[in-house]
Write a structure and sequence with these properties.
mainly alpha, Arc Repressor Mutant, subunit A, 2 domains, 9 helices, about 75% helix
């Protein structure tokens, strides 16, 4: 793969500046003007790379979602489906999914999503993709369990993961994360027990 072009490098610089500004000042106080000023360019130059505030904002949201996906892929890499699911459980209640910088930025987008339909759709699509990945991991790990039961278990696991992340963002101690992880592992044990007892 070749070296990124100067235009790609500049786009990356702008996106990094956007995310820093959102984390520092919040999305409501961030503008194209403030992002441009933070990296020493004017708005006209910034418009060369992003046509509008919405284009810039959604590119920033995409970047945050990509970071979560990359963390998922990096942490969940085993070839054995059961081991992959265990890696998912382990990492979901650890640093990759409770990265406070990414969480703060995502939370800013969640606030906007309450009033803006396009942002709402984008956030919902990201959460749906995450939920689908959890469903796939559960179904792959328990191929002999009926899909409906795997999907229900995956829904609960996804909620535990998200809830654990929210509590971590709010500064609660690790006991909540430990309890959520134990609950997640119990769900897997129940699926396994059902298989061993012939109850699907």
């Amino acid at each position: 793969m070749g070296r990124p072009s100067r235009a790609e490098e500049r786009r990356e610089e702008i996106l990094r500046a956007l995310l820093v500004a959102i984390e520092k000042d919040g999305l409501a106080k961030t503008s194209m003007k403030s992002v441009a000023a933070s990296i020493g360019i004017d708005r006209t130059t910034l418009h060369h790379y992003f046509n509008s505030w919405e284009d810039l904002m959604f590119a920033g949201l995409d970047r945050v979602v990509e970071a979560y996906s990359a963390a998922f892929d990096q942490e969940v890499s085993a070839t054995d489906p059961r081991q992959r699911l265990r890696q998912l459980i382990g990492s979901a209640f650890g640093a990759p999914f409770t990265d406070q910088t990414r969480s703060r930025i995502l939370n800013e987008f969640l606030v906007v999503a309450q009033k803006d339909e396009r942002t709402h759709r984008a956030i919902k699509a990201a959460y749906t993709e995450f939920e689908d990945r959890v469903i796939q991991a559960v179904c792959d790990a328990f191929p002999d369990v009926p899909r409906k039961r795997c999907v229900s278990a995956a829904f609960v696991l996804a909620q535990l993961m998200e809830g654990s992340s929210v509590f971590a963002d709010l500064g609660f101690d690790a006991s909540r994360r430990t309890a959520a992880r134990a609950a997640a592992e119990n769900i897997l044990l129940e699926l396994d027990k059902g298989l061993k007892n012939g109850r699907n």
